[in-house]
Write the structure tokens for this entry.
Amino acid sequence: MLERRLDPAMSEVFPWQEIPAAHMKMRRNQHKPGNMAVLVQSPRTGLRTFEDALEASVGR
């Protein structure tokens, strides 16, 4: 994953507080093709390493 050799076919990533909205999208079949994910204890998307996550958390 760190070298981007695998593609998770991610269509959408939701923050933790938007889990109900993600479920409603799935229930209504309104989601884009691909996998959906939820950020768990991550300040934002795009963080690739533990160090990136630490740096982003300190900058809050």
About this structure: Strands lie at 10-14, 35-38. The longest helix spans residues 19-27.
